[in-house]
Amino acid sequence: xxxxxxxxxxxxxxxxxxxxxxxxxxxxxxxxxxxxxxxxxxxxxxxxxxxxxxxxxxxxxxxxxxxxxxxxxxxxxxxxxxxxxxxxxxxxxxxxxxxxxxxxxxxxxxxxxxxxxxxxxxxxxxxxxxxxxxxxxxxxxxxxxxxxxxxxxxxxxxxxxxxxxxxxxxxxxxxxxxxxxxxxxxxxxxxxxxxxxxxxxxxxxxxxxxxxxxxxxxxxxxxxxxxxxxxxxxxxxxxxxxxxxxxxxxxxxxxxxxxxxxxxxxxxxxxxxxxxxxxxxxxxxxxxxxxxxxxxxxxxxxxxxxxxxxxxxxxxxxxxxxxxxxxxxxxxxxxxxxxxxxxxxxxxxxxxxxxxxx
Length: 358
Prior knowledge:
This protein is mainly alpha-helical and about 350 residues long. The protein has helices spanning about 5-30, 35-55, 60-65, 65-80, 100-120, 130-145, 150-155, 160-170, 170-195, 195-205, 215-230, 240-245, 255-290, 290-315, 335-350, and strands at about 95, 100. Strands 1-2 form a two-stranded antiparallel ribbon.
C-alpha cells in the first residue's frame, strides 16, 4: 500500500464524499432514497476495483490490449442490435433492475490499446502507419458509440487520440490538415447527423434567450442554482432548484449545480480543488512512468478525465452547450464510477511499478 499515490487516493476520497452529500440531496428531492444506497454501493465497489487494478501489472494488461479492444468492439456492435431504446439511445444493457453502459468500459480498452500502440513507437515523430492505427483504435469504437446514438459519450474518446498524437509527435502540417478535416466533419455532422434537439441546444447556447423554457431550460435553471449558492450556499438539502425539482438531470449531468447551490463558492472551490489535485497527480505519474506505455496510459487517462470535468463544469455554468457528459465520480451511475475507478487503478499501477526492474 505504501507504493500507492496517497495524494491521488485522498483526492478520490474527497470527491466521493462530495458525491454522497450531493446525491443525498437529490435522493431527497426525487423521493428516491434507494438511489443514494446504490451510489454508495457503486462507489464502494469502485474503490475495490481501483485497488485490484492498482496491484495488477499494467504491462500485462497493455499486452492484452488487443483482446480487450476486440471484445469491446463486439459488445458495442451487439448493442446496436439488441439494446433497448432508452432516452433516445441504445447505450444501456438491462440486467434485471440494473443497467450497464458498455461504452464506459470500452473507453478503458481504448486507453490500453493506445498505450500498446504508442509503446511500440520509438521515433521522434509518428509515421503515417502508426497514425492510421491510432486513429482506427480510437475512431472505430467511437463511431459505434456515435451510432447508438450517444454523441456526448463518443466525444469523450477524442481526448485519447489527441493526447496520443500530441505526445507521440505529429508534424504541424498534419495538425493543420486535421483541423480542416475536423471543420468539414463538424459541418457534415450539423447537416446530416445531429438531431433537431441537439442543434437547438447549440443555437440556444449562442442565443440564451432563444428558447428559455425549451432547449435552454436546463442551462437556465443550472445557472440560477449555481448563482444562488452565494459564498457559503443554502445548506445541504436546502437548495430550492433541486428540492423543488426545477433542475432537470440533477443526479447526473447537472449534479455540480446541486452542489454549488447548497455549498456555495466555498464548497465548489473545495470540489474543484480535489479534481485539480487528482489531475495533477495523474500527470505526475505520467511524467515519472518507467516506460513509454505507462506514460501514455497515464497521460491519456488524465486528458480524458480533465476534458470530462472541464466540459461538464462549462456546461453547468452556461459556458458550453449541453452535451450529456457527466462529472466523473460525482454524477449518479455505476458504469461511470467503475470505469473511472478502473482508469485510476491503471494510473496507480503505473506509479507503483515506476521503479520496477522486471
